[in-house]
Amino acid sequence: MREAIEAAGQRLRALLPGLTDAVTREPSELPGWSRAHVLSHIEGIGLAMARQARYALRGELVEPYDGGRPARAAAIEAGALRDAAALAGAVAAALDEASAAWAAVGPADWSRPVRYRDGDLRTALTCWWRELEIHLADARLGPGPQDWPPELCHHLLDYLAPRAPHDLTLILAATDTEFSRRYGAGAAPEVTVRGRLTDLAAWMAGRAPRHPLDCLRPGAGSALPELLDWP
After folding, report:
1. Are strands 190-195 and 169-174 parallel, antiparallel or unpaired?
2. CA triple 43-107-51, angle to 5 deg
3. Exposure winner among 59, 76, 135, 144, fewest CB in 10 A?
4. CA angle, 214 as apex, 208 and 217 as ends, to 5°?
5. pLDDT tens, residue by residue, 75-119
6. What would the pLDDT profile of 149-160 be if each residue is shown by its tens digit?
7. d(CA 228, CA 58)
């Protein structure tokens, strides 16, 4: 996983020199957020999870963000006001800190507890991977969901299982690889959604699939079901 995270970080680093004020003010894939908002969030989550690692290695627990979610939201808004050069420098510094913090974690450390979701260091590292890849796509600066590696897609389709509707048995079936996932059981009506693996992961993550997905109920096609909130 650390190799995948470093690769995603390098993709982001390669994009930072090309940032301009005009580019950062353009809309991202997230409603109401510019690219600057997304990059500011990547900076913040990278530092927050690195903080989890630093404290865990000292045997201490700390919240990801001082001040909780309100402080996180305020930091994103304030960070998004920076010019392109300042924003790029801050994101690069956050990537450096994240790399250094996670490089210090040894094989015997992964079960150390963290405050983030009352999990452990592996939980926090997985969060950083997930957030980095998803929001890099949200920034609309190059890589998109169609570029997500299979390992990330499989993780997302597991992690986002709570988004599956409770009144259905949702079956996801990839058309470009041997993958299927069943959410729910019992007598609930079955709905099958078919498409490329990256498109299935994008849809479950609330992002637009690159290619259309097919949705089938017994005997007929139908619209895609509404997904529940993120876990």
Report:
1. parallel
2. 25
3. 59
4. 125
5. 999 999 999 999 999 999 999 999 999 999 999 999 999 999 999
6. 999 999 999 999
7. 37
Q: To the nearest 10°, the Cα dihedral for 195, 200, 202, 208?
A: 40
Handedness of CA 42, 79, 142, 14 (dihedral sign): negative
- Bridge partners of 221? 216
Tokens of 17: 């020199």
CA nearest neighbour of 101 among 64, 49, 44: 49
Q: Are the beta carbons of 168 and 188 closer than 8 angstroms?
A: yes
Helix (H) or strand (E) holding 171: strand 169-174
Domains and CATH numbers, the chain: 2-143 (1.20.120.450), 150-221 (3.30.1050)
Regarding pTM above 0.70, the answer is yes
What SS3 class is residue 192?
Answer: strand
Determine phi and psi for 36, rounding to 5 degrees.
-60, -40
